[in-house]
Amino acid sequence: MSSEYSNDVKCVELEPIYFAQDSRVEWRLHPNKLYTNSLTLMNLGITKASGGRLNKLVGCYGTVSRIYLQDGNQELEVLTRANEWLGIKSHLHSNQYNEELAMDFSGNQKSNRIDVRDITTAQDATLGAMGKKIIQGGVRPQLGTIDATKENTFKGQMDLSECFSLLQSVPYLDTSIFKDLKVIIEFDMKETNVVASIQDGTARHQLRPFLVVEEVVAQDILEASLGKKPQAIPYTPIESDVFMVPAVSPKTTDLNPVQDLTFHVSSYNNKKVARMLVATRTMTSTNNQDGTGSDVVYGNYNSHGMLGQKNQVRVNGRSVLPRNGIERDNQRLAMMADVWSSTASIAPFQNGLAFVATDANARSNYMLEGNASVGVCDYFGINLASVLIEDLQLDYTRTGIWNGTQAQTNLSKYNSALELHIFAEVRKAIVFGQNGGYNIVYL
């Protein structure tokens, strides 16, 4: 452990008390201390013998499956499917934010960036198109000449407030109240969730991370804050659920069958739900990996728009959206902007279906990855206004398409079996009692 001092706080590096490589890591904060809400995970990453590059949406975040904030055995907050949610949050940040983040961390930090660049003849020899193109920027490559070990080692850092809404709800973490405060991470080392190229089965190993915290040392702040309990601490953690959508089976006698499904989402019953987001994951691997050991765009983190897609939500028996709900691609994109982020870094054509290129030009004239880039960042977002949920239903409709032959039809992402990944903000609070204890309740 080491520290650097300032007037009011000292920056402390905490080594894990438990580290099982590629499986789990745990830190404990010292008792009877006052920490700021700034917790940063450092040295998060992997080493891989054959190099390659990390998934360009999540980078090193791809290794994080679940992350917990606990007080002893009491779970204060947990983020499941953490790598996927952190990738979505990368989209929700502005392009400028992601670009600045990428510039700070060479070859390491996750960062979804959208660039429009001039493409040289050499860069575009296979496509034969010149001029400016849309490029999905990813993790910035290593700079300069470096040895093989460093070239095959990927490091990053994580601001834990991206995972824990509780950290955004309090100015300090008081370990005289939360006496056994700890952070726990479960790792995900599945190759296609972490590595974007050279997916050759080479062993990957998690680096040993450490936690950087800011301990308050200013006496006046300690006297005013240490041990002082509020009546309650409200916060809005993210809870997730998954639903399976079976494959569509077009045939020559029914070229465009309509699939119309309703899901009862009971995991949010008796909870107040604010914003909700639905991502669509295809179960056909060729839509995410190209068969040569590389991701297609964002790989497993693609969220595919479907043909004839419609979304409607019913809360306690009433439809939230008018008529049939969201029926068009641009309606879905507008809802995402209104509900989640008006500055989201989703590139043109990444929402919805394939567009018609002008003058019969190939789509690769406009986007470096051509058709593969179309509709891979298609999300449905809605605000349920913190209504207490007694019955939540999600209506989902799409249309299949016959693709000339049965084999090609089966490979089409528009017919693939899907997973609908639901992420939603729920309202909770830590309520303190007069006896010194506390309860965690859904509001």
Question: Mind explaining what this structure looks like?
Answer:
By secondary structure, the chain is mainly beta. It has helices at residues 82-92, 95-104, 148-151, 166-169, 191-194, 219-225, 329-339, 406-411, and strands spanning 3-5, 9-14, 18-20, 24-28, 34-48, 64-71, 74-79, 113-119, 131-137, 153-159, 172-174, 181-187, 204-206, 210-216, 232-235, 238-245, 258-264, 272-282, 310-315, 318-319, 379-388, 392-399, 418-426, 428-432, 438-442. Strands 1, 2, 5, 10, 11, 13 and 14 form a 7-stranded antiparallel beta sheet that branches. A 5-stranded antiparallel beta sheet has the order 3-4-12-6-7. Strand 1 and strand 2 (9-14) form a beta hairpin. The longest helix is centred in the first third of the chain and has 11 residues, at 82-92.
Give me the secondary-structure topology.
Blueprint: E1 3-5, E2 9-14, E3 18-20, E4 24-28, E5 34-48, E6 64-71, E7 74-79, H1 82-92, H2 95-104, E8 113-119, E9 131-137, H3 148-151, E10 153-159, H4 166-169, E11 172-174, E12 181-187, H5 191-194, E13 204-206, E14 210-216, H6 219-225, E15 232-235, E16 238-245, E17 258-264, E18 272-282, E19 310-315, E20 318-319, H7 329-339, E21 379-388, E22 392-399, H8 406-411, E23 418-426, E24 428-432, E25 438-442
Antiparallel strand pairs: 1-2, 2-14, 3-4, 4-12, 5-10, 5-11, 5-13, 5-14, 6-7, 6-12, 8-9, 15-24, 16-23, 17-22, 18-21, 18-23, 19-20, 19-22, 24-25
Keywords:
globular; five-stranded antiparallel sheet; 2 domains; Jelly Rolls; mainly beta; 8 helices; 443 residues
